[in-house]
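Follow-up to my earlier ticket, as requested here are the two runs.
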Amino acid sequence: MDGKELLHGALPARLAFYGACATPDAVASGLQDFLQDSLCSPDRSGWQQEREGAPEPEEKTKTQAPCRNPEHSPAGDRSPGDPQSDNLENSRMKRAAAKHLIERYYHQLTEGCGNDTCTNEFCASCPTFLRMDNNAAAIKALELYKVNAKLCDPHPSKKGTTSSYLENNSKSAHNNSCSERKMNKKEVHGPRDDFKDVTFLSEEKVYEILELCSKKEDYSPLIRVIGRVFSSAEALVQSFRKAKQHTKEELKSLQEKDEDKDEDEKEKAASSAAAAMEEDSGASSSRLSDNTQGDNNIHKLGPEEVSLDIEAVRRVYHRLLSNEKIESAFLNALVYLSPNVECDLTYHNVYSRDPNYLNLFIIVMENGNLHSPEYLEMALPLFCKAMSKLPLAAQAKLIRLWSKYSAEQIRRMMETFQQLITFKVISNEFNSRNLVNDDDAIVAATKCLKMVYYANVVGGEIETDHNEDEDEEPIPESSELTLQELLGEERRNKKGPRVDPLETELGVKTIDCRKPLIPFEEFVNEPLNDVLEMDKDYTFFKVETENKFSFMTCPFILNAVTKNLGLYYDNRIRMYSERRITVLYSLVQGQQLNPYLRLKVRRDHIIDDALVRLEMIAMENPADLKKQLYVEFEGEQGVDEGGVSKEFFQLVVEEIFNPDIGMFTYDESTKFFWFNPSSYENEGQFTLIGIVLGLAIYNNCILDVHFPMVVYRKLMGKKGTFRDLTDSHPVLYQSLKELLEYEGSVEDDMMITFQISHTDLFGNPLMHDLKENGDSIPITNENRKEFVSLYTDYILNKSVEKQFKAFRRGFHMVTNESPLKYLFRPEEIELLICGSRNLDFQALKETTEYDGGYTRESNIIRDFWDIVYSFTDEQKRLFLQFTTGTDRAPVGGLGKLKMIIAKNGPDTDRLPTSHTCFNVLLLPEYSSKEKLKERLLKAITYAKGFGML
């Protein structure tokens, strides 16, 4: 019969028997029986054959009866290498995959996905969905399967629930497999050619089958066994289990048992097996029942332990993957396994009932060929989608297990998922309408890569016990009413900083990792960054919808440029929000409109004017700090579109870090500034410096500050440790390192105590005891580690505690609601604040645009770049300062500046001018190269202040 007759003729007839009550269970039973007949029968419909990729038989054998299960055919009818046997095996695997898909379609039509805002017209949760009876739903499920219609992901409220239809099917599946399990628990004596009684694998069994196949030079039996086991979640979970390891006490107890004791144990084992089977019949996920390989000890496994013999799996893969035919069996099996696993995890809550379900993911990920092109098209995307459905607890356990792997093994898994993401990105054309966020394969691979990333973090060098104390006083909220309050609603609780739930489950953050197994940079996928529409992705990040994925939730895969763009959107939206609230507040209260953070300063008194104004704002209404900054220099005509703010920050930084002020000390050898523990400035001054730093990030300005990396780590909540001395105090670090490595007697040879000396602001020596009565406690080989730890803690933390807490508090006044900590690592925070130190003028030239009549081929433009290339490093920095308002390259390098060179009239004696707000250089068409160089050097050397052209 053709597809139309199948859907509208045979199925209603089959369901008529069950139609009297038309319950879901009855319909399910009819649907399953029909599915088995239609997929197994030799005269199955053409559309099913087309879906399976099998050719239509030219003639039918009249004596051949439909078979419900190919495995139940007489063994004598088939030989190990018989093509008919292979076809029947493939039919069984395809039937299992089709059954699960049709189950999901039926469940979607009758119960829905649980998302009230679902837009799938074939989902019961969609508001526009027209309800249908169970018979119609069964027919529709087959139609949807035929056309490969969209399947909804279940809403969280539906996860873990199972419809009566699915429960009925799982009970049936359990009953059908009971006899196989009983056979499986008996030792198989002597090899059989078909190996039909092998329903799970061990290393020994694989080698036994392999040896037999090698002797006969026919690998068909092994291929069929692999196809059967590796396409079944139940079989794969039971495979390659560790042998139970008995303790000495257990062995002694076993030796003392007599025959009566043995009989009692047998009775108990039989009772336990019966109870387990009774429990299995109540839920679909219980198919994965206890067996002879140690399942009864699942509850004894630790958080990083599994019942799987991973080394045995690796040895088996190593032996088998060299054979191309056997490799294709793994590939095909994975295609059929993945949809079933996805269904189990999505609807059946299988992991919570059997933690051993995690074994199959470990087994599949040990396949060293997952990254090969054959897997990238279908098998690996399907597996990633299934793996991404793992519950949080399962992900955490998998991460802890993988964290014990070597760096090479972590890199192999990382490259597998990265290759899939890259392959999918370059194989499709993504744009603002066709978003990469909507590609299921890329999203699933990114979620899987996230697990590898955290395994890389947990497996690295971790410091979880060196955290800064939180600020004692919370940052005050705005005194202004929120938009909701102005409209008569109660104030809503503001969300705190975003925290990754996986980090919470693991108890580890990225910043805790001093050195990962492989560098963080290897997890960045540049092709993905190139096609990512960051404005759309940021929207999904903020809205947190269930059906839209944001790559900002996986910041490890994004480069600094992309993350900076996301932070820019966040800052701008917060600025606009503050502006709208201010406007509405002024209308309600009748006060003066002030939508910007305005700073009017005198150039000669910039510190006094700016810091006094910022101090008043911080005391009266800290929320004003989150408005857009607008700077005016008194007596100057410049309008701040970004360029005036850049110069303001530059001048403030020059003044603040002047060693004569005494707030910071400067190390000539490292070129770094450090907090002066003897500073006479009050805490408020350091708070204001923190505000300036936060405002620079918030307003996307680059500062010429020189802090060691430990400052940015401390801003992110970590204390300074001995390793941080390498760049902040390298001389001290080397001395303490030599102390730790000294092989002689420290007490006799060095004669030092737990008292240290340092100098104050004026160079006077000061003494400090690291411990009580430290001057009388000698340092020995036994306590030298304690001395180094106390010395480091004093230099980096305790001696500057008062100054740094005030500094950090000011910084958080501006950035406390920002996703800064969530997105960036400390070295990336430094890049945000200071910009890139690498000045690549070739990249700047390639991205520069021309206007007003100039082109890339104009003679003056060629002369201009020749002159710029001939500049010294100092002159190049002056040129950048003159053109862009800062002498640093932005995040991503000079190529991200997008400078414009515009024609500013014919030959003249006027100097070049610039619009630093927009990175525009106005260049007259000078008559000679020499005049161009002379005018340009004079402009960049003496440029200061703003005027109107």
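Run two:
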Amino acid sequence: MTAAAAAKPALSSVKKAVAAKPPAPPAPPPPPSKVESNVTLWNFTQPNGGKLAEAAWPAVVNGTLAVTTGDPAAEATGPRRLSAFLGLGADLRGLAAAIEPIVNKGALDPKDAPKDATDLKLTQNELEKALAVYLGLNIPPLRPTEWKVGRRVILPIEVEIVPPAVPRWKVGRAQMREWARLIRPEEEAGLQLTVRLPVEPLPATTEADHRPLELKAQVATRLGTLTKPVAKPEEVAALGAEVRAGVLVNPFEGIFYQIELMRQLRRDRPELELPVTLAILSGFSEHQAAVTGWTMGGNALFRRLWDALRRKGDGVPVADKPAVAGARALLAGALGLAANGTAAWYSPTERGPSVPPVDLFLAPAQLLRKSPNGKDVYLTVVYGRLMAAGVRDNTGKYYGPAALGGMDLVDFVGDDPAFLGPAPGSTLLQCWDLVKKIAPNEGKLDGLRLADGGIVSIGIQQWTIAADDELTVVLYQFMRMAPDHFDLFFGIRGMQLRVWGLADTTEPTPDKIDEANPYLRPRSRPDTPETWRSAYASRPAGDWGDAGTGPADDGVPSRVKLVWLKYSAPGGPVETPQPIRSGTAHRWALFGGAENAAKQVIFDPLWGGISRLASQTSRELCTAQLQTAVFRFQRLWNQVNGMYPTTDAPGGKQYPFRRLVSSQFFAAAVIDAHINVPGLVAADLDTAFRNTYARKPYTLVGTEADDHFLMRMAINFVLARRVYKRNKDSRDHNIVALHDKPVIPATRDKPARDPGLNATPGSFTGWPAP
């Protein structure tokens, strides 16, 4: 054996030494990610998703908590406590991390006995265990299966009021450490699985059992259990308690069901609207109402309940007046309504409330995802629902989401276009047929664009909100059909709408409103015979109103002003509704636009999510789109009829527009251009006429040669029309591709369908008679 070999220790000695050395402790788990910590804290998270600056926190003290359980049953009688609302991807680890700065900030209360230094801070692991015990999650089964996005968690942080009315937060670190010790070693592994379970996402309103018609049926079934003709008091109380319990657990999950419930009560059981409203509110403590009204879902419900209370006015039964007065005061405090005298309040649409509601948010890693073709898709959250606002798009100056949408108007309407009213005439049916056929050139019912100068553009004809004659008109009709749905999606965020005159910034008088809105019942002479009614207008349709009466059929406005009501700052001036000037520069900031140093306007995707969810959730918004799409033929006629009849020379022959644009193909090409760039259609028609006339004059005697002229003019118009330049080729191609497209044969589920456009002059007779 060599000296070197003799110097090496024996292999057995190495093994013994290794065996004698204690194993290294396992590496601590990584801290919770921002996704896991996607938690919204009451009165701590700001409406924009930011956190309350530490300098603005109330004082935090470390003492002894009065309540040692997160059971909601103890909330009504115990001290007020902070609440957390769980966002997408959140888990118990993340919740512990979210409250750690508050829990570990508290200094000892001067009146408490000094504690050991070891009681001053809690570790992440201790916080997780303490929360599990406090919330009862250490008792099998461990999985909190009922936890969904929006779930409210009552926290072990108590809210105290120190004279003279100064709030402070109290934590109990010593108690929490004791709770953490209750987790036995053999439970540790199971608990670590529990604290990493993310909350379940809320279902989309396009999923089975959650679509609008299914929701209506579910509510009708529930209301069908109430005794007729007079519901029993215990039935009303049970329904109110059911709604209240759901809101207190998760103010986001059931909001669409709750709004539908209140709608059907007003429509089918109007005598129960007030009793059910009082039954819902009767069990709320002032603190519970404040927490609920702070959330977007709870605030939306409370606004609807306020409407129910306000609607009754002074016609409340004497026996109910004390309860109504208490309910109004409760809602006024929860919504932050502005006082109107000593014992009354303005509604949330009359003056700006001082409680801006807070929705849930996404963590930075959740804001984008890849589409199947590799494009970035903007994501956002509306009422706790994850919404794809659209793919990343831009026009050089404006950047934001755009989505074709997934709701086909043909599938929505079916074989019976009931939105046109009973027994619609030939004019409406012909126009509807063209609307259907050109729809693929724009978008679907839930289509969206938030990436150009139109700001928000929605739906099957991409109506824009930059001016007062497009999307504001659609939304005004929607507001008339479904004021509850309008408030749910748009009113709660500050939007209001008023019929307006031609002057942009001048408050219109009734006669100026009438001048600008010829197809609306006159404001100055409301009893005028209905000669003002447009042949392209349909009666507003919807389920809103007492006994299903629905809105009055007052025609269709042409100009509707965008009005905005800001939330009032607590203790500051009370905001009033303000008309907003037309034009992109005056409006993009209202819809999440922000200009960067390069003068590019970047839109937050939130309004894309709001608009898409509104279309997916409210059938009335889709109906308003369909009716306004048909009414576009009236708008087009008004614009081009001023230039026509066209003449080949001053004082020469006249050629009426209704004869020139008399084929399905030509009418579709014109209306399609009007959707895209309405202000250029008349001039482009004139260009097409003159280009065709230069090759062969038109005699207007109804000969085959004249028909040939009209077909050539239609093609020349497609070439001449100035649509959005980035998609002119595809837009023109899509129209030409419909030329004489073959009939689609019937299938087992669907009848035969004719998607083609007839190019023969005379195949479209939907213009007004001469």
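The only thing I checked on run two: Residues 619-640 form the longest helix (22 residues). Let me know what else you need.
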